[in-house]
TrEMBL record:
Whole-protein coverage range: 451 to 712 of 714
Protein name: Bifunctional diguanylate cyclase/phosphodiesterase
Domain EAL, residue spans: 1-262
Native source species: Streptomyces massasporeus
Length: 262
C-alpha cells in the first residue's frame, strides 16, 4: 500500500527525523545522555513511529542507509550537545544511544561506517552506545559477534536492549561483547503496585547482581512514576529512561534538561 511505495524515497526526500529521550542517572537524577528514536513525517499520514516502518525498512533493505543516517545524525547531535555544554558538564559529557536492527549487524559495512562517522564528526567512541536486542543475538555465532567485538574494543558501548523478554540465557551473557543491559519495560511495570510483586523484585535483584558481577551497567526502561524510579534505584539499577523524566522530544529539549541539573 501507500507506505510501501513511499518508503524507498523517504530518506532522500528528508522525511525522517529523530527524537531523543533522556537517560538519567538513578543515583543523582542527572541527565547522562539520550536514546535516538527515529520517526517518519509522512506527507499524508503525519508522524509515524518506528513500529510502522522499521519492519518494512528491514524487509526492503532501506534499513541499512536509514540506520547509517540515524547514526550520523545522532552522533552529530551528541557533538553539538557537548559543544553547548562547554564547561558546565557536572555529570560529564552527554552520550548517545542508537538502535541497530539485526540487518545492520549482518551488513559488512557496519564497523567501517561507524568508524567513518565518528572520525568525520570528531566524536570519541565512548560517547556512543549501540543498542542491539537480545533476540538479535540469540544463538549468535562468532561471525555475527565479530563486528560488535571490534566496536567494543574501540570503546563503543554495546547495550542489550529489551533484556528479559527473550529466552534470556544468562550464562550466554559472558560471551557477548555487551557492557549495558537495558531491562525491559515489563519489569518496570511490575514495580507499579506497592508493594511490588515479591517475585519480580527478586528477579530484578538477581539480574542486577549478576549484571554487576559481570561488570555490566543496568538501564531500566519505561519508568513512569517516581515510586518506580525509587524502587529501581534501591534495587541497584544504574540508569533510567521513561516518561517520568521525559517523553522522546526534539534535541533542544534534551539539552535544556541536561543543563538544568548541571
Ligand atoms: O519510542 P518508539 O516507539 O519510537 O520506539 C519503538 C522502538 O523502535 C524502539 O524500541 C526501538 O527498538 C525502535 N527504533 C527506534 N528508532 C530506531 C532506529 O533508528 N533504528 C532501529 N533499528 N530501531 C529503532
Ligand atoms: O528501544 P526501545 O524499544 O526500548 O524504545 C523505547 C520505546 O518505549 C519507545 O517506543 C518509547 O516511546 C517507549 N517509551 C519510552 N518511555 C516510556 C515509558 O515511560 N512508558 C511507556 N509505556 N513507553 C515508553
Ligand atoms: Mn532501544
Ligand atoms: Na527497549
Amino acid at each position: 500500500h501507500g507506505l510501501t511505495t513511499a518508503l524507498p524515497t523517504a530518506l532522500e526526500r528528508g522525511e525522517f527525523f529523530i527524537e531523543y529521550q533522556p537517560l538519567v542517572h538513578l543515583g543523582d537524577g542527572s541527565v547522562r545522555g539520550a536514546e535516538a528514536l527515529v520517526r517518519w513525517l509522512h506527507p499524508q499520514h503525519g508522524v509515524l513511529g518506528p513500529d510502522r516502518f522499521i519492519p518494512l525498512a528491514e524487509h526492503t533493505g532501506l534499513i541499512v542507509p536509514l540506520g547509517r543516517w540515524v547514526l550520523e545524525q545522532s552522533v552529530r547531535q551528541a557533538r553539538e550537545w557537548r559543544e553547548l555544554q562547554g564547561g558546565v558538564e557536572a555529570a560529564g559529557p552527554l552520550r548517545i544511544n542508537v538502535n541497530l536492527s539485526p540487518c545492520q549487524l549482518t551488513h559488512p559495512g557496519l564497523v567501517q561506517d561507524t568508524v567513518d562517522i565518528l572520525e568525520r564528526t570528531g566524536v570519541a567512541p565512548d560517547a556512543l552506545c549501540l543498542e542491539v536486542t537480545e533476540s538479535a543475538l540469540i544463538g549468535a555465532d562468532d561471525d555475527l559477534l565479530k563486528p560488535l567485538r571490534r566496536l567494543a574494543e574501540m570503546g563503543v558501548d554495546i547495550a542489550l536492549d529489551d533484556f528479559g523478554t527473550g529466552y534470556s540465557n544468562l550464562a550466554n551473557l559472558r560471551r557477548l561483547p555487551v557492557s549495558i543491559l537495558k531491562l525491559d519495560r515489563s519489569f518496570t511495570q511490575s514495580m507499579q503496585q506497592f508493594p511490588a510483586d515479591p517475585v519480580d523484585l527478586k528477579i530484578v535483584e538477581g539480574i542486577v547482581s549478576l549484571a554487576h558481577s559481570l561488570d555490566l551497567a543496568v538501564t531500566v526502561e519505561g519508568v513512569e512514576t517516581g515510586a518506580q524510579a525509587e524502587q529501581l534505584r534501591i534495587l541497584g539499577c544504574d540508569t533510567a529512561q521513561g516518561w517520568y523524566y521525559a517523553r522522546p522530544g526534539p534535541p533542544e529539549r534534551l539539552h535544556q534538561l541536561a543543563l538544568v541539573d548541571a
